Amino acid sequence: MLHSHDRRSQLHQPSLSKPHLKDEVRFLQSWFQNPLKTGAVSPSSPALAKMMASYLDPKLDGPVIELGPGTGPVTKALLQRGFAPERLFLIEYNPEFCALLRLRYPGVTVINGDAYALRKTLADRLPGKAVGTISSLPLFTMPQVERHRMVNEAFDLSHPGTPFVQFTYAVVSPVPLVPGAIEGERSPRVWMNIPPARVWAYRRP
Ligand SMILES: C[S@@+](CC[C@H](N)C(=O)[O-])C[C@H]1O[C@@H](n2cnc3c(N)ncnc32)[C@H](O)[C@@H]1O
Hints:
This protein is α/β, with parallel strands linked by helices. It has helices at 4-12, 23-33, 35-38, 46-53, 73-81, 95-104, 118-122, 144-156, and strands spanning 64-67, 88-92, 109-112, 133-135, 164-168, 183-186, 198-203. Helix 4 (46-53) packs across helix 5 (73-81).
């Protein structure tokens, strides 16, 4: 719920000039502007976001990297799971989504940039090794070599053995497994999402 002063400041931000829009509409607009980058026509459901967040352990020490937060359903699930806002480092390509996330989740670090240039985009802002990475990026639009490079960069920035979590609508793993280098476990299908999806948790053994 926005307080009245929040609504006023929201109206003064050009990127949030349509505060009445629902997230579904914001998402659809983003999809029309850039379908390959947006990668979905509506935000993830609370059920899918909760499933993704369940793979990260708030009792471990360190920040969380979130890639492609969009309008923030996964961010919300991470907060509900017990991560303090200050532990969340979000990288989002769409500047309008970034403005919305900053307004909606005070204390969270929102970086407007490219998740595929992970280390460069984070620019030493992580306070320590991460407890994992949680991603909603549309991976299939990128070459496999780029996906592997990005996932390995995320592993390098995280505690050993912690996961890179990714949802997908696809039947196959969006990050091809590499025996001994990238292993993966997948969740049951989450039916309460449009379309139904599943979650992969990748780890470097
Ligand atoms: C499928 S949407 C998921 C949004 C949200 N996490 C959800 O689950 O509803 C993908 C998001 O990734 C963002 N994105 C796509 N490519 C990106 C990149 N290279 N770097 C950062 N964000 C990116 C898009 O702008 C979009 O917000």
